[in-house]
Amino acid sequence: MHVLALGTLLTLAPVAVVASPPASPRPATSPVNATLVAIQETRTRDALSVGLDVGRSGGQGILAPSVGLLRLHERSDGIFTRGPDGKIRGGLGATVWLGYGGEFRLLAPQEGPVGGQVSAKGKVSVLGDAGGTSFEVAVGAARLPGGSTRATASVGAAISFLYADIGYAYQIPLDGSTRPFGLTSHQFTLRLTLPIANGRTERTEHIVPRRAL
Fold it and tell me: Dihedrals φ, ψ of 109, to 5°?
C-alpha cells in the first residue's frame, strides 16, 4: 500500500519544465558578421632625406651628415576585417616604396679640413607586420678632406621602420686606386626619410570571398 501511494503521488505531482534562454544575437564585431576586404593604395610623394654616417679613415673618425631630396613611389597591400558599421577592425599588410634623387654629404674628420660629396641615390624599403628592411645604392663624386677629387659609389642595407633606418654602408673609389684619406669603407648609418609633399593617391578595394582563404 505504501508503495502504491507513493507511486500515485509521483504521478499526480506537477512537473517543472525549465525553458532554455533564447540564443543571443551575434555582436556586430563577431567574425561571422565581419567582411574581409583587400585594399591596395599607391601614391607618389616628395621627401626630405636626412642622414648620418660614421666611419674611420687614416686613423681618424669621420662624421658624414647628409641631406637630400627623394621622389617616392609607394604601394601598400593588405587584407582587413570590416565590421557592419563600415569601420576597419584590423588586418595584415605590407608597404613597399622606391625612392630616387640627389644627396649632399659633408665629410668631417676629427682633425683637419672638411670635404663634401654629391651623389645620385636610389633606395627601396619593404615593411610588413614582421618588420622591415631597406637597401640603397649611391654613385657620385667627392672632394675629400685630403684635397683630392674622386668618383665614388656606396651600397647599404638597414633595418627599416618605414621612414627611419639603422644599418650599414660600404664605400669604394670607382677608379679602383688606393682608398684616399676621408673616403671611409665600413660605415654605421642612420637615415630619416620625411615626406614633405603628397602627389597622386589611388585606392582600390574588393571583398575577399571566404572560400578563397
Answer: -75, 170
How far is it, in rounded angstroms, from Cα 116 to Cα 192?
A: 20
Could you give the dihedral angle defined by the CA atoms of residues 6, 8, 13 and 16, in that order, rounded to the nearest 10 degrees? 90
pTM of the model: 0.74
- Boundaries of every domain in the chain: 31-212
Q: What is the pLDDT of residues 167-181, one digit of tens each?
A: 999 999 998 778 888
| 97, β-bridge pairs | 74, 125
| In the block, residue with C-alpha cell 601598400 | 76
Read off the pLDDT of residues 71-92 as tens digits, 9 standing for 90 and up. Answer: 999 999 888 888 777 777 777 8
- How is the chain split among helix, strand and coil, in percent rounded to 5? 5, 65, 30
Q: Please name the residues in contact with 213: beta carbons below 8 A apart, sequence gap of 6 or more.
A: 36
